[in-house]
Structure formats: C-alpha cells, structure tokens
From TrEMBL:
One annotated GO molecular function: diphosphomevalonate decarboxylase activity
Keywords per UniProt: ATP-binding, Lipid biosynthesis, Lipid metabolism, Lyase, Nucleotide-binding
Claim: Transmembrane is one of the keywords in the record: no
UniProt EC number: 4.1.1.33
Domain Mvd1 C-terminal intervals: 180-306
Lineage: Bacteria, Bacillati, Bacillota, Bacilli, Bacillales
Organism: Ornithinibacillus xuwenensis
The name this protein goes by in its record: diphosphomevalonate decarboxylase
Encoding gene (name): mvaD
Domain Diphosphomevalonate decarboxylase-like N-terminal: 7-164
Top enzyme class: lyase
InterPro entries, alphabetized: GHMP_kinase_C_sf, Mev_decarb, Mev_diP_decarb, MVD-like_N, Mvd1_C, Ribosomal_Su5_D2-typ_SF, Ribsml_uS5_D2-typ_fold_subgr
Amino acid sequence: MKAIAKAHTNIALIKYWGKRNEALILPTNNSLSLTLDGFYTSTRVVFKEDLQKDTFLLNGTRIEGEQYNRVTQFLDLVRNLAQKNIYAEVESINAVPTAAGFASSASGFAALAAASSKAIGLELSDSELSRLTRQGSGSACRSIFGGFAEWQQGEKADGSDSYAVPIAPQNHWDLRVAAVVLSAKMKKVSSRAGMKRTVETSPFFKGWIESIPSEIDAIKQGILDRDFEKVGEIAEANCLKMHATTLGANPPFTYWLDSTMSVMQSVQALRASGIPAYFTIDAGPNVKVLYLPEHEEEVQQTLRSIPGVDDVKLSCAGQGITYLGDDEFV
Ligand code: PMV
C-alpha cells in the first residue's frame, strides 16, 4: 500500500478569488493556470496496519500542528472514499521556493492526493483526482494537469462538478515565467483569510465575478492561438482586478509593497520599449512576469536591476502528475 507522486506548482492567469463553500472549497469563479516546471513536491505515502496515527515528514523534518492537521484531515477524505480505516506514513520533498511567493500548497496537495489515493487502492480518473485534490487546497486541483488547466467552478452544492480540466498540454506553447523575489517582508494575510474578507465586505467583489466569464473565454482562445499579447493583457488586467477587490474590503488591505509597484512599472516600461512582458501577482507581494524565450536575457536583466529585488527564478511550462519509483524519490 505504497505510492510516490510528483506534482508541480501552477501560476493562475485568471485568479481563483472567493469561495461559495468554505468547507468543500468551492469557488465563486472559474480560474485558469499554467503549471510550472522546476517547482515541485514529491510525496511518498505508505499505509500500514500497525500505525496508531498518521505521520508527516517534510524535507526530513517531522511536522506537527496546523500543517500536520491539514495533511491528516485530507487523508481522512481518502480513507472515507476507500472505506478503509488505516493510517499512513507521509514523506514529502518540497522544491518550491516559498520565498518567491509560490504557495507550496498547490504542488503539495496535488502530490499528496495522487500518492495517497493510489497507495490506498483507489483508481481515480484525472477529474476525480482533481476533485479530491480541491478539498485539500483549491488552486492545487489545477496542478493535476500539465500546461494550461481551467478549474471549472461547477454549480452543484456537493461540489461534484467542481474540478480542473486540461486546456492545452505542456508542449503546446513555450511560455516562460520569471518569479521575482523581493527582499522586504510583510505581515501576510493568507489567501484563505483575504478571500473571505473580500467576499464578505468588498463592494468590488460583484464586479470581479461578473468580469470573469468573458475573460476566461478570451484567454482560452488566446492560448489556443498562442497569441502572447492577448494572453498577457488579459492576465495582467485580471490580476489588477483581483487586487483591487482587496482595497475595497473592510478593513481594506493590499498584498503590494512599493517594490511590487516598481516591478510592475518596469514590466510596463519593458513593453513600451518593444519587449513584450506582462505581470501577475498572487496573494503576496512577489511578482511573476510572463515572457517569450527570445526575450529571456533582457527580461531577466531588467528585473535583476530593480532596487528591492533579491532574486529572479525562471521557469517554463511544467507537466502534470507523475508517479515515481522508490529510486526516483530523492
Ligand atoms: O488555493 P489557495 O488557498 O492557495 O488560493 C490561491 C489564490 C491565488 O493564488 C491568489 C489565486 C490562484 O488562483 O492561485
């Protein structure tokens, strides 16, 4: 009863921002992302009859507390589905630069869902696996697939129609992403808390939700046509709209630092100088920049020269879930 799975993190081009059901993690809008090569989590799950409770090792350290609780609550879902009452040893290796503002929860829960469901003997389709993964962390349901994936919000109260579907595979388009790491730190409003406050108090939330369907249709066409300007413009506008909702919340908040704005302005200046590049930002201050391979040098140099930028990490499109042998778990 053992399996090892590897999942990559993803960056949303159309953001998931708002829940209609907190317990089941059901969103108020469709979202769309690119899975990223290079940033991943590998997880080994072994179910054993003689265990009295689950155990969780992350990068070699035994984890307790909130992080452990989220893992074991997720394993409860898997045990329920399989109708088996048996505990597991979970061991994860995380190669996600959390300092770069990538939530390791996306690759973490995707790898945990894939490894645990396989180890316990469930034979899930990709959609079933995505639906299960969603209940660990929403954005993780998109990491089941490589390349571009869309999380369809669904309509049903039980969440059975809320899961991700593939839009275009990893090799469809060589789109690149630079993750810009900023040196200043700030007190973090978690994505969970930020979404909740926005849904409950921001008058801009209604406008956000209404604007999504046409953006999703347009960006999907842009991806299929490999139309970089179209995809970049929609992604950047969608990110700005998401962040605008937080300014309307009560109490208002923002994830941006002044260095966040410097990076945004540099990206717009790059564009004005003829180099196509666009930004997107998740629930934190760091910026992700979309560009094409032929502009990698200029984009990287520009970003590294901005005051307040600590590091720039480059990535291309990544693959979906893969299952590994024991000797590949390093
Ligand atoms: O799934 P969570 O709780 O990590 O929320 C992710 C929210 C954003 O990163 C801001 C947007 C997204 O779609 O990934």
